Structure formats: structure tokens, C-alpha cells
Amino acid sequence: MPRDLLDWELGLGTVLTLGLAVLIGAYGLREPQRLDTATVQLHRSSIARGATLYQRYCVTCHGANGKGIPQVAPALNDKNFLATASVEAITDAITDGRPNTAMPAWGQRHGGPLNAQHVQDLVAFIQNWEKAEVRVPSSPLVQGDPVAGKRIFDQVCYLCHGENGEGGVAPALNNQEFLRRYDDAFIRETVTKGRPSKGMPTWGKVFSAEQIADVTAYIRSWQQGATLPSPSPASAPAAESSSAVERGKALYQSLNCAACHRIQGEGGTIGPDLSHEGEKREAAWLLKHFQDPRALVPDSVMPAFGHLSPEDLEGLVAYMRSLR
């Protein structure tokens, strides 16, 4: 082969090789962007499928916009819920349901209509309501005192959740599935914000952050199998927040409770003197008494105030507890 032709072919081969290398490099640089775009498109498709499933199965209880329906089901389109409920927790709740509530198990392994992909799509749709939520990191052990938490639980929480957290009119908390599914951040947030649509008060208006951490630690102790000593009877009762006390005091006045009750020498005498009510009654007893007086005092002539909002009842309880 003539040398000139050989040199030409070698030169052409070199140019083609370099060109191919440039093309491969350019494609490689673009590949991450292409994959990111594909991932976004897949996620959008999952959200769209989840929206269809939500309309079919969830809207009846949780509402068209996920804001919940009072006395039926809680809000899902809620920044506090979305900031504390992990993907795993939402997935488990949809798949396995929630024991002692009206929430059924939708997963096919329980006889429901949803397979794993359906559940994943629903979770994607629910989480899409709060695109910029700040995730609260999981914290298996909060800085709380479980013994102090037991004292509060025995005063207040047992009324709905049972003396040992076994459940009653509210879901069981002393339940290994519940404790596995929900982390401390979720429990703490739920206690603080409450579930007004389900009748659970917002205890953050009554108890301090430290006291709520104590309750959370006590609930978590059931998972750890801890045996707690009984709190000392001489221990001081939990303090109520000043805002709740003021709310309750204003309600006491607006409801004209002084027509029957006396405080520090002022008021009527038809009902008991309330000057030192906080030293006599626990919060749970007071709450129940406001809701249904005759359930605790059969011959009571006091009207029931169960029609008041959870926040108003919390305020009245806090005010009574402040009277010492």
C-alpha cells in the first residue's frame, strides 16, 4: 500500500476515534440529567395514579383535599402530620390499617384492593401536598422522664387510651405494632397538636414541652419493656400553661359559672366551692365532669358542657387545676 494512502487512512481513523470519544463523553455528561428527568417523570406518574386511587378509596373519610372530616378521620394534608409521619409509617397505615380505629387495612395481604405499587402511589400523592416540608429526624429516645410521664398519663390520658395504654374510646398506644410504626417525633407532635377531628385535645395548650416529652418517654417505655416505679403521691401535679388558664377563666366568667360556684368568697353557693379545686381533682376527673357531670356525680344539677370545643374544655380544666 502506498505510504501516502496509509497515512491518510491512519489520520482518518484518528479523527473518527477522537470524534467518537467526544460523542461518548458528551452523552455521558448528559446521562445523569436524562436519568433525573426520567425519575421526575416516573414520580409525577406515580402522584397522578395516587390521586386517582385517593378519589376512589380515601376521599369519603379524609375529604377531597385531605383536610379530614371531623369525627370521621384526621387530616392528611397537614404540615405537622407530613413533617412527622415517615414514608414507612404512611405505607404501613395504608397497608395494615390502624387497630381500634375506623381505618381499614387496604393491602391485598389483608384482603384489601391495593397492591404494593398502589400503596406507593398513594403515599407519593399524600406527600406531594407538602413539597417543602422539613422532616423531623427519628429520635427513638426523647429526653423525657418516663416516671413523670406515667404520672401525667395516669391523670389524663388513661381516660381515653386505657389505664395501661390498651385502648378504649381511643386507639391502643401500648401496642408493639404502633410503637414500631411511629417514632417519638410523631408521638410528641400528636400529643402537642392533638387530633381535634377525632376528639383528641391539643395538649400543647395545657402541658409544657418537657411534660409532653415525659409522656412520650413513658409511651416509648412500653416498647422497651421497662418496669417503672410508681410516682410518689407527694409529687407536685403538672402545671398548666398560663394561656390555657386565662382561656378557662374567661369561659368561667362568660358561662356565668359564678351563679352557682364560689371562688375565694365570691359567687353562688348552689354548687361546691371551687377555691381549692386544683388540690382536690385530677385533670382527667375534671374533664369527664365537664363533659358528663352525672357520670361522676349522679345527683348533680350541673349542666353538661360536652358541646364545648376540646380547646375550651382544656381551658376550663386548666383553670380549675390552677385554683389552690
Secondary-structure blueprint of this entry?
Blueprint lengths: L2 H55 L1 H4 L16 H6 L2 H10 L19 H12 L18 H16 L14 H6 L2 H10 L15 H16 L17 H13 L7 E2 L2 E2 L9 H4 L2 H9 L1 H4 L13 H13 L2
Antiparallel strand pairs: 1-2
How would you portray this structure in words?
The chain is mainly alpha-helical and 324 residues long. The chain contains 14 helices and 2 strands; from the N terminus they run H-H-H-H-H-H-H-H-H-H-E-E-H-H-H-H. Helix 1 (3-57) crosses helix 5, helix 4 (87-96) crosses helix 5 and helix 6 packs across helix 9. Strands 1-2 form a two-stranded antiparallel ribbon. The chain folds into 3 domains: 11-135, Cytochrome Bc1 Complex, Chain D, domain 2 (Orthogonal Bundle); 146-224, Cytochrome c-like domain (Cytochrome Bc1 Complex, Chain D, domain 2); 242-322, Orthogonal Bundle (Cytochrome Bc1 Complex, Chain D, domain 2), CATH 1.10.760. The longest helix is centred in the N-terminal third of the chain and has 55 residues, at 3-57. The model is unreliable at 132-141 and 231-238 (pLDDT under 50).
**Tally of structural domains:** 3
Give the CATH H-level superfamily of the largest domain.
Answer: Cytochrome c-like domain
Strand arrangement within the widest β-sheet reads 1-2
Helix content: 40-55%
Distance between the termini: 113 Å
Radius of gyration: 30 Å
CATH architecture tag of the largest domain: Orthogonal Bundle
Order of helices and strands: HHHHHHHHHHEEHHHH
Task: Name the structural class.
Answer: mainly alpha
Query: What is the overall shape?
Result: elongated
Strand content: under 5%
Distinct helical segment count: 14
Q: Regarding CATH, which class of the largest domain? A: Mainly Alpha
Largest sheet: 2 strands, antiparallel
CATH topology name of the largest domain, in short, is Cytochrome Bc1 Complex, Chain D, domain 2
Mean of residue pLDDT values: 78
